[in-house]
Specification:
Protein name (chain A): Sigma-70 family RNA polymerase sigma factor
Helix content of chain B: over 70%
Strand content of chain A: under 5%
CATH architecture of the largest domain in chain A: Orthogonal Bundle
Helix content of chain A: 55-70%
Number of helices of chain A: 9
Largest interface: A-B, 34 and 32 residues
Distance between the termini of chain B: 44 Å
Domain RNA polymerase sigma-70 region (chain A): 46-112
Radius of gyration of chain B: 24 Å
Order of helices and strands of chain A: HHHHHHHHH
Oligomer: heterodimer
Order of helices and strands of chain B: HHHHHHH
Strand content of chain B: under 5%
Domain RNA polymerase sigma factor 70 region 4 type (chain A): 136-186
Number of domains of chain A: 2
Keywords (chain A): Sigma factor, Transcription, Transcription regulation
Family (chain A): Belongs to the sigma-70 factor family. ECF subfamily.
CATH class of the largest domain in chain A: Mainly Alpha
Structural class of chain A: mainly alpha
CATH topology of the largest domain in chain A: Rna Polymerase Sigma Factor, Chain: A
């Protein structure tokens, strides 16, 4: 990927593509290269390519639509600012995923630090459940915040407990305990 | 329980990787692409640090070299009034520089409530400080309410203002 990425500023070799994933990666790389130069149209295309994935991750971590929308916008503003730092050594989607998790957790923390002063407990979660959501998404909204975040990162996003612990600044054992708690609660809800 | 575990596993496998938000998020992003990256908090922090240092100096001076109680109180009350005026000037400046009327946003109500609560709390603390200007905890609390008010106003100004412009992305 990195070799292909490095050659993107010149002509692109489409014959080397072997799968739709390759095509997407190449398109990302081209758009990233142009957006790095300040091309907002290219950045808009990157947004269109990825905002649904970013929003899904933010929604599942935040547990509410408004906060997820804010986190999604923050992620893309941050992406625009940090794009010049992206060196193409990793896949763009991997880099964006990590940036999204950071921004979503930061947004959750920012809101909590203010509103938690007016709310009765840390375990307060969304009072109204939106029945528009399907499957696990509908159930996740009913989980306590910390358990939901750990469960989403481990069970849906494939993070290891030590990575989750590092990001949330908790012990690995706590991450495992929160995961099992969330899993048990979800099974009870089914 | 085994059935439920299987059901959960199946639900997780079926979970889509993507979700569509209910409104257009691009407009809010685009508006901020040209904004300076570090100016949002930069001007408040020096003021807060300066105020805290000034407060520490004033309180420390009067603790180490106590003079007549009335003179102490007068100096602190004067400092209180100065900081209050500076804060009000910052709030006014933010109101003047705002680009849109964020109060028309459908999401503005919680922010406005938060600001109102902060202002009410700040006024009570201010009144209490005038009666007891040497209370350090009251000072810290008062400065904190001012800082949060500024932050909330800035957050409010970032809110989307026109829901009618939303639509399909593509």
């Amino acid at each position: 990927m990195s070799n292909r990425y490095c050659s993107l500023t010149g002509k692109t070799d489409l014959s080397a593509l072997t799968s739709p994933d390759d095509a997407h990666q190449l398109l990302d790389a081209v758009l990233v290269e142009r957006a790095k130069q300040g091309d907002k149209t290219a950045f808009r295309q990157l947004f269109d390519q990825h905002y649904r994935r970013v929003y899904a991750l933010c929604f599942r971590l935040a547990g509410q639509a408004e906060l997820a929308e804010e986190a999604t916008q923050e992620t893309f503003v941050r992406l625009w600012q940090k794009l010049p730092l992206f060196d193409g050594k990793s896949q763009f989607t991997t880099w964006l995923h990590s940036l999204t998790v950071n921004q979503a957790l930061s947004c959750i923390k920012k809101h909590k630090s203010f509103w938690a002063r007016f709310l009765p407990s840390e375990e307060t979660h969304t009072a109204t459940i939106d029945f528009d959501y399907q499957g696990v998404d509908r159930l996740l909204l009913r989980l306590p915040e910390r358990a939901r975040i750990v469960f989403v990162l481990f069970a849906l996003e494939g993070y290891q407990h030590d990575e989750i612990a590092k990001r949330l600044n908790i012990a690995t054992g706590t991450s495992k305990a929160q995961y099992h708690r969330a899993k048990k609660l979800l099974q009870e809800m089914i | 329980m085994v059935d439920k575990a299987e059901t959960l596993k199946r639900l997780l496998e079926e979970t889509p990787q993507e979700m569509a938000p209910e409104r257009d998020l691009w407009q809010g992003v685009e508006l901020r692409l040209d904004a300076p990256t570090s100016n949002s908090h930069s001007y408040w922090r020096p003021m807060a640090i300066a105020s805290t240092l000034l407060l520490a100096l004033v309180v420390g001076k009067f603790s180490l070299w106590p003079t007549a109680p009335n003179a102490e109180d007068d100096a602190l009350i004067q400092t209180l009034a100065t900081i209050q005026a500076q804060h009000q000037a910052s709030v006014d400046a933010l109101s003047l520089t705002k680009r849109v009327d964020w109060r028309s946003s459908p999401y503005s109500q919680p922010v406005e409530q938060g600001i109102e609560q902060l202002r009410a709390a700040a006024k009570e603390i201010y009144d209490a400080l005038k009666l007891n200007p040497t209370d350090k905890q009251l000072w810290q609390l008062w400065l904190w309410t001012q800082q949060r008010e500024i932050e909330l106003i800035k957050q409010g100004q970032k809110l989307p203002v026109d829901r009618d412009t939303t639509g399909e992305m593509i």
